[in-house]
Every structure is written in structure tokens, then in C-alpha cells.
Amino acid sequence: MEKDFIIYFICPTNKYATGGVKQMYRQVDILNSAGINAKILHKWHGNKEKWLENNPPISYNPYIFKQIKYIAKSKSINLLRRITLFLLKLVSKKLESNSILVFPEFYGLNAHKIIPNLPRVIFNQNCYYTFDHSTNFELQKNTYTDDKTLAVLTVSEDSQSYLKYVFPDISIHKLRLGINNKLFFYSQEKKKQICFMPRKLSHDISQVIKILQLKGIDSSWNLIPIENKSEREVAKIMRESAIFLSFNHREGFGLPPAEAMACGCIVVGYKGRGGEEYFNPEFSYSIEEGDIIGYVNKIIYVIGLFETHLDLVTSQRKQASDFILTNYSIANEIDDVKTSWKNIIERYHEVF
User: Fold this and answer.
1) Looking at residue 151, what is its pLDDT?
2) Core-most of 95, 98, 199, 337, by most CB within 10 Å?
3) Do residue 37 and residue 97 come from a single domain?
4) What is the reported pTM?
5) pLDDT digits (tens, 9 = 90+) for 177-213
6) Which of 13-27 are b and which e, b meaning 16 or more Cβ less than 10 Å from the residue's Cβ?
7) 341, 320: one domain
8) pLDDT tens digits, 81-130
9) CATH of the domain at 34
10) For the chain, what is the domain count?
């Protein structure tokens, strides 16, 4: 399709699995498969998310990441920092003049000051991070209102509504995230296993798990934390588990509960704003955030359903999987990415 520019997704590296980075890697793969030149931009040579199986093209630029630390976070540029930036620029790959930079939302409202001559797109996967690291920014001139910002990409109805309200004049494209059905697929056979991700809301998780243990749930049920696992390992645990506990907290979308539903888990827990669009009461059990006792009681209730109403929960598990894999398919994500970038590219050619 288009080969006359290069799209760089400025991407942090994490030791643990994160949905945000996963979606950047996925989007780069989709764009390249469509004939659009796109790359992940990491900080240092050797940086690569080892917990992911896909291998998109990767470039490296420590100069940009040091700028992010200084500029996006409103740090003053003293002499030592100027020297550091100068030296890093010498060892960093020079970005082509026909580059488009894609910034994640959590770099804040001063990201337009980083390589300000190049056009950019904001990939806002969690609208609630939009104002992070933005204690010192101009209300009328920021990353979202700057004339070189071509568009915003986001991933849920909730985030789209938020961003349209805050930045009504910018073009906003919503992508349906795709669940990898080669890893996250319905499993009929389940262990008496409850899995959860302990990375967020650790205080809530600790209370729920300890109270659940004190209440003396059947010892045949196992509690399995999912941490420091590859994407394939995460999927395997979810396919084996009967119940997934969601501790979504003001998420842009909240990928893990959706992946768990795809695997046929009964999901119990917090919707986390973005999850409202798929936490269907016909097949999931939402809890008001912070209602610890209500959370524990709902887990005990669902465990009871597995003992007394197996046909019901089996039907709910299949319904949840079908809903997720139909509405959040890879095909839908590919269509949305291609359509959104077609519009962004048209805008790029109009302006540049």
C-alpha cells in the first residue's frame, strides 16, 4: 500500500506481560502485513518483549527515550543533561524526515516537544493515563492540540467518549482489540482452579484472597496467581481455570478478563470502566470496586454454582467465549487498524 514513510511506535520494555505493549507489537505486525512500513522503537539494542511470540521489525533510539524522561516529564535541561542528550544523539539512529511517530498516552501532554518537527499519532490505550507526567503543560498547546498531531487511536467506547469530551477537535479512531484465538480459545475441561493477575490493586487482591482462605473454601479449589509468564503460559493457565478474578482498575479496555472469557472462564470482579462493554451480566459477575466482602461472597456463590448448577455455568462459559471471540476477533482488529491508518495516511498526505 504505502512505502513513502515510516511509522515508529515508541515502545517501553517491561519484564512482565502488559496489554499495552502487546497491542503495539500487534499493530506493527498488521501494518507491515498491509504493506505499510512500521517499526517498534525501543530504547537499547537487545530490548525486546521476550514474553511475546511475535517479532515485528525493531529499531533503537536511546536519544528519544532520554528526551521523554527530561521533556515529557517537565525536567529542566541543565548543562549535564544537554551533554547527555548530545552524546546519545550521536549513537542513536537518525529518524528519517518522512517518519511518523506513535506515542503512547502515558508519556503525557508534552510529548509534542520530542522531535517536534515530525508528525505524530497518539495511541491512547488508557484515557485515565492521559494527564500523567503532565504537571507543567499549556492548556491550549499540548500534544493533543498541536498541529502536527494527526490523530488519536484508542481501544474502547469509554476511552473514546472521554477523549472526545476533553479534545473535541482532534480525530479519534477506536480500534476493536483482537483476542488471539490460537492461544485464548474455549476449553471444555476445567480444573477446580481460580486464577488472577496480582500486578494491580495488590491491596484489594490481598484482602480478597486472605478472606476467601479464612472462609474455608473447599480445599480442592486452587488459587493460581499469573505473574512472570509468557503469553502462551498465561493462555494455558486460563484454559485450565474455571474462574478468573478481575482486578481491573480504570482500564482503557482491560484485556485479561476478556482473554479469560475467551478461554471459557467465569469472570468475577471489577469491570474497570473500559470493561463495561464486555462484562455482560448474562455470563459474568461484576463487583463494585472496593466491595471486598461482596467480592468474596460472589466468588463463594460462583463456586457453589459449579457444584450445584454445572449446566448453567457451562452454558455461561461457552456464551462468554463466543461473545468475546466474535466481537473481539483478530479479523475485526485488522479491519479497524487498516481503516484507521488509511484515514490517518490521507491526513498525512494532505498536511505534509
Assistant:
1) 98
2) 337
3) yes
4) 0.90
5) 999 999 999 999 999 999 999 988 999 999 999 999 9
6) beeebbbbbbbbbbb
7) no
8) 999 999 999 989 889 999 999 999 988 888 898 899 999 999 999 999 99
9) 3.40.50
10) 2
- Give the per-residue pLDDT at 1: 41
Query: Three-state SS string across 206-247, please?
Result: HHHHHHHHHCCCCCCCEEEECCCCCHHHHHHHHHHEEEEEEE
Residue 284 has what pLDDT? 98
- Please, which pLDDT band fits residue 2 given cuts at 50, 70 and 90? very low
Q: Report whether 235 contacts 56 (CB < 8 A).
A: no
How far is Cα 150 from Cα 349, in angstroms, rounded to an integer? 11
Residue ranges making up the domain that contains 298:
191-327
Helix (H), strand (E) at residue 314: helix 310-327
Quote the CA–CA distance of 31 and 338 in Å, as a whole number: 7
* 1 occurs within a structural domain: no
pLDDT beyond 80 at 75:
no
Q: Rounded distance, CA 258 to CA 243, Å?
A: 13
User: Which three three-digit cell numbers place residue 253?
Assistant: 479496555
**Integer Rg of the chain from CA:** 22
Question: If you average pLDDT over residues 336-342, what whole number do you get?
Answer: 97
Q: Which H helix or E strand runs over 268?
A: strand 266-270
Q: Contacts from 200-208 at CB under 8 Å and sequence distance 24+?
A: 200/247, 200/248, 200/249, 201/247, 201/249, 201/270, 204/247, 204/290, 204/292, 204/295, 205/245, 205/247, 207/292, 208/245, 208/292, 208/295, 208/296, 208/299
In a domain, 186, yes or no: no
213 and 135 belong to one structural domain: no
CA distance 107 to 68: 7
Does 159 share its domain with 227?
Answer: no
Share the mean pLDDT of the chain. 91
DSSP 8-state symbol, 276? G
